[in-house]
Amino acid sequence: IDDLRKENAEEHREILSAIKFSYAELDHRIVALEDKFTDIEKRVSQLESPH
Hints:
Helices cover 92% and strands 0% of the residues.
């Protein structure tokens, strides 16, 4: 039983690690998209402004 508990605890840590990595990757992608969106908004604003 102790071996099963140790194995279960190790697998649990691995799963938590994978989840944290997934959230970190998702956060990175969202930040990148927000930056690109901001750049696009600036470009559109410049194109629409009267010269």
